Amino acid sequence: MAPSEAASLRVAPVILDLSAPTAASTIRIWNDAQQPINVQIRVFRWTQQNGEDVYEEASDVVASPPITTLQPGGENLVRVVRTAKQPVQAEESYRLIVDELPTSSQREAGTVSLVVRHSIPVFFADPDVPEAAPAWSVDQRQGGYMVTVRNDGARRFKVSNLSLSNGSAVVARHDGLVGYVLGNSTARWFVPGRSIEGVSGESMTITADSETGSFDATARLSGG
Fold it and tell me: What range(s) does the Pili assembly chaperone N-terminal domain occupy (predicted)?
């Protein structure tokens, strides 16, 4: 088996949340490796369609520099700028993709490079944008549950550490980040869990964390 190399690229912060009229910010990138690394930075517009994330190359938000070389132990600042002339409408969502690129010498040596990718959410919002207004539904599937969130508000809603309960019994759980439902959008996620029989139409309790803290919600269970 070919040798592998440890991950080397770090970034901070891990989210950019900008309120108009602020239109620019920075992230810092570091090289923790013992050799130089090449880094590529790209920006994608982030929307949701049919419950799925959709990414399209952005033309109204740019990152500078788009490509850089970091020396061992080196660091650099990347500037992220919204260049669109029109005012922000509600909340605009993007993903800043920071990739460590494998070098030609690594490929030629036959090593397995653990190339690092960081995907950083970037939001530009009107300060008066309405808050998220999530509505939940749960559909029992083979091996778990499809959780759907419809957000009728204009601001995104982040979901982490999600658990589903029927009565006092937790039947499914997803630790860590589950995902975001963007403003005026719908997102759905499959959560593995154990099946429960004969409870279609009953109420399910949803417990999770958002950016503002823990919350509980309820949804009717379908399927099964």
Answer: 10-124
